Amino acid sequence: MGQPMARHLARAGHRLRAYNRTRSRAEALAGEGVRVCGSPAEAAEGAALVVTMVSDGAALEEVLCAKGGILETFAAGGILLQMATVSRTQVRRAAEECARRGVALLDAPVTGGRVGAEQGTLTVMAGGDEAALERVRGVLSAMSRTVLHVGPVGSATLIKLALNVLQAGMVELLAEVLSLARRAGLRPEPFLAVLEASAGASPLLKLKGAALRAADYTPQFALKWMDKDLKLAGEEAKGLEATLPVATLVAALYSAAGGRGHGEEDYVAVARLIEELNEVKIASG
Q1: What residue spans define the domains of the chain?
Q2: According to the model, what pLDDT value does residue 148 have?
Q3: CA angle centred on 130, ends 42 and 56, rounded to 5°
Q4: Mean of the pLDDT values across residues 40-63?
Q5: CB count, 10 Å around CB of 216?
Q6: Which of 123, 115, 200, 203 shows the shortest CA–CA distance to 160?
Q7: Is a pLDDT exceeding 90 seen at residue 1?
Q8: C-alpha 162: how far from chain center
Q9: What is the value of pTM for the model shown?
């Protein structure tokens, strides 16, 4: 996600320094006017805005606070745009660390997958100071289509997790009903055509239905990341004493699919587990 987002920023004329723990990923941008740095601290020094897009909360803490981290050099008055999906506890702790150094943190996870990152059509959910958000809207417009202010720090993270629970459930249920059709001897195309003409139609189901019809598991958003986000949502529900019975079952199914070796595939690969349970193949052919 981070690489195509950075590419859009560079193409929009922003002066950009990049750091990645896997250096080769940052070096892929070196020929596009991006200066590759050897540490987060080097990337942050003298910057007005720092963007983080990392794998999880542990990685966020490392790039922020470890030796050579962002907060060693990021000057007061700057804005940290934290775009990874982590827990509310982690993003709030990061905001507190930033505030102690006079840095404003915006909690700004995205949705749209790798295709959205490559096309610059992501949707950004932003939590934090609205004035700080207005200062960086121009930057966000270079890599996103929609930016929505949703409340204080932590609000965007909770909304992103809730959204992923919903989308994960939609895709898992799509796999179930297509398996049901297959058990009855039907091909997926008639069901998908009716779905597209019904009140249940949605861009997500159209996209993932096409992937299931073709058995295409090329990762746009890897199952391992969906599994991670579903676990984070479960932790949030537990902390809030919220009961989510269907979401809990959906999370267990994604975890099981990951345990069967499908973690690096797109999260639509949860269908592989449903296929095994029903002894059918969803794809045409």
Answers
A1: 2-151, 158-278
A2: 97
A3: 45
A4: 94
A5: 15
A6: 123
A7: no
A8: 12
A9: 0.94
- Model pLDDT, residue 87: 95
Determine contact, residues 139/214, Cβ cutoff 8 Å.
Answer: no
- Which residue is associated with the tokens 């019975």? 245
Exposure of 200 by Cβ count < 10 A (0-12 exposed, 13-18 middle, 19+ buried)?
Answer: exposed
The residue from 67, 160, 228, 281 that is catalytic is: 160
Type of residue numbered 192: L
- Cβ atoms 284, 190 nearer than 8 A: no
Structure confidence at residue 25 (pLDDT): 87
Nearest to 175 by CA among 265, 261, 252, 274: 274
The CATH fold assigned to 158-278 is: N-(1-d-carboxylethyl)-l-norvaline Dehydrogenase; domain 2 (1.10.1040)
Is the pLDDT at 67 greater than 90? The verdict is: yes
Res. 214 pLDDT band, cuts 50 70 90: very high
Which DSSP helix (H) or strand (E) runs through 122?
A: strand 122-127
**DSSP bridge partners of 34:** 16
Token pair for 177: 């009903």
In the predicted structure, residue 33 carries a pLDDT above the cut 90: no
Q: What would you report as the CA-atom Rg of the chain, rounded to the nearest whole angstrom? A: 20
Q: Say whether 281 is catalytic.
A: no
Calculate mean pLDDT across residues 169-179. 98
Residue written as tokens 């069901």? 191
Task: State yes or no: pLDDT of 240 exceeds 90.
Answer: yes
CATH H-level superfamily of 2-151 = NAD(P)-binding Rossmann-like Domain (3.40.50.720)
Q: Residue 208: what residue type?
A: K
Write the DSSP string, 31-47: GGTEEE-SSHHHHHTT-
Residue found by looking up tokens 């204080």 in the block: 152
Residue range 188-209: mean pLDDT, rounded = 97
Q: Round the average pLDDT of the chain to a whole number and report it.
A: 95
Residue 137, classed as helix, strand or coil, is helix
